[in-house]
Amino acid sequence: MTGPSRTALRNVYTWRPGSKAVLGAPGTATVLPAKRRLTGLVPMQGGVLKALNAGPVAFDAAPPPPVADLLRDLLSAGALELAVSRGETELYRLRPFRSVDSTRPEPRHADGVLSRFTVLRRTGGEVVAENPRSWCDVVIGDPSVAAILAGGRDDDLVADSLWSDLLWTGHAVLDADGEESDFSAAAWSPHELWFHRRSTVGDRGTSWAHFGPTRWADGHFAPVPASPEPYPGESIPLPVPDLDRLSQSDVPLARVVEDRVSVRSFDDAAPMTVAELGELLYRCARTRNVATLERSGTAVTELPSRPYPSGGSLYELEIYPVIRTVDGVAPGMYHYDSYRHALRRVADIDDPAVNRLLSPAALTLADGELPQVMLALAARAGRMMWTYEQMAYAVILKHVGVLTQTLYLTATAMGLGGVAQGYGDTAAFAAATGRDELEECNVGTFVVGRPRV
């Protein structure tokens, strides 16, 4: 691949978006928004700050020491972006999101390799390298840089500069085995660490820009309705338990918490009944009512209420009972209509996709037995993602934990046994339900039935 002509590289400095210098008394300035106060500035340094406020400042050679010191400090503080260019062609850019303790090294020949945690992705019109262990992103501005990342060194001048900066920023390592030999690094899968950093408040989230309950989709997309589109076919009403009676006779919470265990063996000779299934679903997941949030200039949002808590009262989770043996209900895969406390048939029990959905559950049960009832927990992701940015899926997984514990404790109080599954076949769920995985996806599984004595 042909890159720019071989001429000296240029370092171009610009303020990080939102940053600027406010010059005060002679020799002083304050860098905003970090409120970093600079004192003892010589005129040359003050001139550079004024120039940065007006636009990019470029250097074809090493700047004078006072200027170099100032630029190094501002870059280390995370206040500046640094682009490396050749002529008018930007090769790559270091885009900090926090400060760094080390100083940028001089370019040198280094046979580095990309860190296993570095992810290349397109965002807008840019190709960006992100690494959850780094202090900056690297924006790839020219195809020749992508070729170097893939192992090319046709231009050693650019390659030396790039690999030196990648090693400095943590996007590259000298020894690929080093990330495997340290347990704390080897224990994290790249996608898990990337997800952890991007879905929590920290280096990227402290400004709260594009993070949290921003209702970013308001005015662009209609809210996802609280109630999902019903499956065709007849609705099967479930028995409604007497909550007044249960409030007087139910097992005390302290006893239930102490008695809760994961049950992996079930008695098919005495399966749970439709009344018990109805009670479990009613106590754990029915929709009690739906309120509406109406604000001038915004879309009307439906806010359900269920027995377990949900962020923003959005309640994106749905329950799909896969019933192999329940006294009073034909085998099959059903959707629990939490608004009508009823079941709607989704697929036959011998459907290949349903069999694939059940198979992982058998791996965690005693002697590989199939569950009496497997509750597939699904998320209508748009319910959360219309309101929340970046953190929505993390919140969905928290809700899965909340609902799972509610199912555990209620099943224990009812004399039933249950066990949560650590994984499920999401492709099989999509095939069985016909739902688009981007709109509704399997996020949890809970097996329940009559314990074997």
TrEMBL record:
Gene source species: Gordonia sihwensis NBRC 108236
Name of the protein: Uncharacterized protein
NCBIfam families, alphabetized: antibiot_sagB
InterPro entries from the UniProt entry: Bacteriocin_Proc_Enz, Nitroreductase, Nitroreductase-like, SagB-type_dehydrogenase, ThcOx_dom2
Any one Gene Ontology molecular-function term assigned to this protein's record: oxidoreductase activity
Record-annotated Cyanobactin oxidase ThcOx second domain positions: 113-202
CDD domains assigned to the protein according to its UniProt record, in alphabetical order: McbC_SagB-like_oxidoreductase
Domain spans labelled Nitroreductase: 258-449
